[in-house]
């Protein structure tokens, strides 16, 4: 149970009251005694993580595979190595507890360790190599053999106490039980196959003035439920039992079957029967793994003897108190790591329950240690688990607590061993109150024990008919012949009657005392019940509060669900918006791609046009070059002719003819510049001869006059950028030579318009220089092309 569940002040108070015993500084305390037992290395395992340094010191080494090498030392009360025998363990650990048990003191011995580390082996052992429990049972009966009380004289009061029965009650109980035992359904299963010899160990400090009765019970804690392994009334399916606290604040299992045993064999038989019902299973790490925590309780009731009456009958002394000692052997289920056991399903659930209860044990120990070291009074969460709740009185009350930590030394178990050893180290720091003699006052008092007890032989003690309440009135025969004899017989009867009367009186007084006692007990029970109802009330409050919290959580969850749904709606909206934006981006991308394609196409067209133009120009250039070559050739020919003429001194008429011819040639030269022509010697000659008629130069400074050769009906461009032709003469047709040879014009521009492949208008301006020829003609030399392209702004 979670400590936070005790938040209400009343609940806290209630729990605190119950935990104060542990902080009683007046009582003598001693620490939990922790022993260590090392299991022999498994076959095939080579590496170990454990090294025993001394009889009480152990070293835990990190395995070689780990990066950081570390050694940690742990100190125990004693370490049992893998060579230690079961006998050594029982002598060291268990016999002192047995001694306490016979003196009416409590003891708890539990084994702790990971699964398969040898806990069950240590406590139970094997049939040919018994562990602590069987050896203790043998030794117990070896020790009290001659001092056992007759069966059923001491009886459990079903509230964790004992009462002494009258002769008749004991006798009728014996008869009842005999009847039930003949019912085959209720016969206990299994008998202990004793394959070992009782070693005959005896504990000598048995009180020879006492009679002893031994009671055993066997329970298990499985999945946090308590089950009675000796309860045969409910058949195979065991019932979950409640835990209760008795008037001495000892915890007990309500309605547990507690059987009085008179011999070790009887005890073994019961243990066997319980063992058959215990939850065991095969796991990866242990073939016979305990799936529950099992608790075998031995209670020894000591009845103080003995006064003898004049008839030789043993009498229970007047105080009539009995002492009860309890020794609990707890075989804890092993902690398990699921990654090693690979458990699933039921085994996994069991493992988780085992680990949870062990964790609760650790938490309780930690809290106890903290309370003891810091002198605080914090709530110890015993109620978190049945395991801790059942043993609460050992830590809060008195008793000796011993723990055997079982270790599997293989290197693979390093991690688990580390946790186990840390727990062991912490446990030793906890102190418990030293055991005291537990005296109970039985409800039925003053029973005279049979005179057979005089000899203290158990066989004789068993006969129920040997009990008597009052001395029998002797049967007398009166012999009236002998009056003295009659008188002494009457006196004997009177003496017996007086004895009976006085005994009757004392019995009356005893009954009165008993009634008082009973009343007291009833009052205490009433108090207990008031306390319980207060606890129930506070628990109800806690439950109510938790229910309220649960409701609040539920409401919050509903709110959150609504919020979540809103968020989901918004999320979907945003998702839609994102989708739309993505679509828009995709469209834009498409447009960009189209635009780029178009650009590429335009570029391609431009390149094509460029190539075409270049080809055209190349072609023209080639033609002009051909012309020039032809002209040069003709000129050379003429020069040669002129030279011949000059040499033969021809008349000037011929010369003029040549000049005309020359003019014709020059016209055809086309692209030849006037400068190159000027350099020509033939022109020198002509100029020299015709110096009176110098050629007119067209002045550039005066600004060029353009001859604009338009198509017949040009489309108006209406563009901002217009060709720069300040002075121009526009013609649509060149009819006569003078249109070109007009000396005022120095530039020529041919305007051509046509639609392009996209249906747009393309205007080309072919520009040229007009170069006058020496014959009065003119040459048009193209030197530039401008292209004007109209584009629709709506076009992509
Ligand atoms: N000291 C030992 N010497 C020889 N054999 C041992 C010793 N300790 C344990 N074993 C053997 O190891 C096996 C497992 O031991 P055991 O069943 O006692 O483990 P366990 O700790 O009780 O396991 P679980 O928690 O799963 O019940 C058994 O076969 C047992 O006989």
Automatic annotation (TrEMBL):
Keywords, sorted A to Z: ATP-binding, Coiled coil, Cytoplasm, Cytoskeleton, Microtubule, Motor protein, Nucleotide-binding, Phosphoprotein
Broad class of where this protein is predominantly found:
cytoplasm
Q: Where in the cell is it found?
A: Cytoplasm, Cytoskeleton, Spindle
* Kinesin motor domain location: 31-430
Tell me the GO BP annotations in alphabetical order: microtubule-based movement; mitotic spindle assembly; spindle elongation
The answer to whether the entry has keyword Chaperone is no
Recorded GO cellular component terms are: mitotic spindle; nucleus; spindle microtubule
Identify the stretch(es) annotated as Disordered.
Answer: 1-27, 669-702
Biased composition range(s): Polar residues: 1-10, 669-680
- The entry marks the following residues as binding ATP, namely 113-120
Annotated coiled-coil segments of the chain? 564-612
Query: Listed GO molecular functions?
Result: ATP binding; microtubule binding; plus-end-directed microtubule motor activity
Name the protein family: Belongs to the TRAFAC class myosin-kinesin ATPase superfamily. Kinesin family.
What protein name is recorded for this chain?
Kinesin-like protein
- Source organism of this protein record: Dendroctonus ponderosae (Mountain pine beetle)
Gene this chain is encoded by = 109537028
